TrEMBL record:
It comes from the Eukaryota. Coiled coil: none annotated. This is ACB domain-containing protein. Residues 3-88 form the ACB domain. It comes from Nyssa sinensis. GO terms for biological process: fatty acid metabolic process. The lineage of its organism: Eukaryota, Viridiplantae, Streptophyta, Embryophyta, Tracheophyta. GO terms for molecular function: fatty-acyl-CoA binding. PROSITE patterns: ACB_1 (PS00880), ACB_2 (PS51228). Keywords: Lipid-binding. It holds the Pfam family ACBP. PANTHER family: ACYL-COA BINDING PROTEIN 1, ISOFORM A (PTHR23310:SF62), ACYL-COA-BINDING PROTEIN, ACBP (PTHR23310).
Length: 90
């Protein structure tokens, strides 16, 4: 299976992660997803009073140096890790 196809499959699987997935892990996935699909951050950082969007922007900015392929691979690995943790805690 090609990397892009596997990435798309795991992007769908990420939607089924448990509700108790931490915000930290959700932000990691968000940053990797944006880097994999769009590339480097292309917007300015949201203002201090917009904490949610600011955290998402920071998560994306944190992975800015990764190639789209690296981000896809890291995303797949992270979703697999979260799925395994969820299965172990079920």
């Amino acid at each position: 299976m090609a990397l892009k196809e596997e990435f798309e499959e795991y992007a769908e699987k990420a939607k089924t992660l448990p509700e108790n997935t931490t915000n930290e892990n959700k932000l990691i996935l968000y940053g990797l997803f944006k880097q994999a699909t769009i590339g480097p951050v292309d917007t300015s950082r949201p203002g201090i009073f917009n904490m949610r969007d600011r955290a998402k922007w920071d998560a994306w900015k944190a992975v800015e140096g990764k190639s789209k392929e690296e981000a896809m691979s890291d995303y797949i690995t992270k979703v697999k890790q979260l799925q395994e943790e969820a299965a172990a805690n079920a």
